[in-house]
Specification:
It is built from 30 helices and seven strands. The protein is mainly alpha-helical.
Length: about 650
Amino acid sequence: MYLIYLVLTVFILLINLAGLGRVFTYYFTDTQLARACGTLTLITSLFFIEHFVGLGSLSWVWPLSTLCSIAILSKHWKTGGWRSELPFWLPFLYVFAWRFAFPDIDGQSEHLTDLAFVSNYISGSRLPPSDVWLPGYQFDIYYGFLHYATALAGRILAIPAGLAMNLGFCLTIAFSISLAWTVVSHFCSATWKKALVIAALLIGGTGVSPLLPILYAQTDSSPIASTQAAINQLWANTRFVGLYDQQINTSVGTALFPKAVEGTARELPLETLAYYIYLGDLHPPLAGFALLFFALALMIKLENTQQTKSLSIALGASVPLLLAINAWNLPLQGLLLLAWCGYRRCTGQSCYLKYLIFGASLALLLLYPFMNSYAPNALSAGFAFVAAEDHTPLRQGLAIWWPVLWLAALAISQGKENRLALWSAIGVLLLLAAMEIIYIDDPLSGSYNRFNSTLKWWSWLYPAALLLLGSMALSSQAYWRRCLAVVPLLAICTYALPQAQYWLYQPKTSLGQFAGDGWLKNDIAHQAILKHLRSAEKGLVLEGLDAGSYTAASAFALHSGQAAALGWPDHESLWRNQAAFIQTQAGKIRAFYHGALPDAGPWLVSQNIRYIVWSRFDQARAPAAFALLRQQLDAQYAWRVLLAENGVELGVWERRN
């Protein structure tokens, strides 16, 4: 039954997006651009409106919109128009298969962080919404456009936040790849060439990918060892410099990349779409990929179209949108637009400046209510020069970037025969060099000094370079250049090998539980707690804290649609300018779950805590604390046993009326 429901949900979602895209083909003849621009227009408009009035549940929308979409699409699809949806549907289904096999939204990576962000918006209240990780505070400390969009789809389809998040993850990558298809199709007509570039973006890694088998030796052939080896290689591809280059365990590898002196290594990450697909994080950089490819597709389309007005307005709007999507990339996307304008001017073509300005102004106007609440709380960080000890080690830098440098050399070799290729290559090289000179001086320091800068900037530049330079090299008139272009693209596609190994050996314990709560429901006690909280009245849920972040804390609250008494304190502290009360609160929660908090009952009532979870996590952490808590809480809270086994009780305390 659940599988049928899931298939119908996906069908409704894809039909509505196709219908919306079809409406916008009047302004954008390209199906991929029309779908993307229609979706962005709708979401941005509602994002603006809901800063003045929350629209609440929108479940009444989908029956009407689905009927309208079917009517709009029926004639077009009868004549074969459905084929234009394949560049979107196929990557969606690929990513969907990954999330279907590994759907858990748990304490690993930023899963629960992203679920908390989506949960903030799922009620449809006036923006900025309440922070479900910090009661009494608004969620006005992070750029949440992607999570708002995801929650909006959840509100329309009347689905829980976890299911919306996994579907939103699939959609975001599908938008990115479909727009990349528009770019590569401009240059290449052969299907295999387009497929190669798309594969490099969707399953490819970095230049380290073909080196992984000779850098990291698998200890044995057992399934557990095979899984761990795959995980190590999946992470090593993106966390190579400063972390996994220090964990190389082969003689050849250590000869190629000698270990740094202890304390001198600098972590310089670069994340790819394939890494995100494995990881499952619905984090702002994902939307940054989509907006990057959106801008590139608009620029390329403007090279040979008459629809200059609509395309230029959309291109102008694409830059300010990063303020709400992923502000780290705003300088890069701004430079990209300026470089495109310079290229157009130097080649005697118009850059449609008045339309660009109009589009940017319109986007800024629609985002003003968001900026009005977000800007005062935004992290203050400026540019700084990279110190000598923070530069990228030459060997590691070449290992990562050699495919891009290879493609840039091929583009430069075309000279004036292809000015776009020449400008693109020079632009990529200048940006890469600039990233070695300046960085964003955020609160991180030491080995993490450039961590966020390379995480955001390298991850933006790498796919842009692969898409543009790879497409142009494969479409070159010179046969030798086309042959050489295949080499780096195929090389980074070897990242598919650890992905396949992970897929084969990693246990799929939550297969098909697309709401992301399978890791909880697979335990009978946790399933009972989750079921009870879902049917209970709304109230703050208290859960135990093992660490400051990357823990299961708040999972029961988020997956049941409740608010947490406190989420991950380290994250909230970072966002709230290290407010001391957050860590103080976390300390009291830890003391409580160890039975060491005096006057626990009155304190919990003063914090408006309605439900207190006692799960297997808590029983394993401090089994002796349960009896003490029963005594401490008896006057204010009633104990509800949801599972009793071998003399151990698990369940929820509920505040007495």
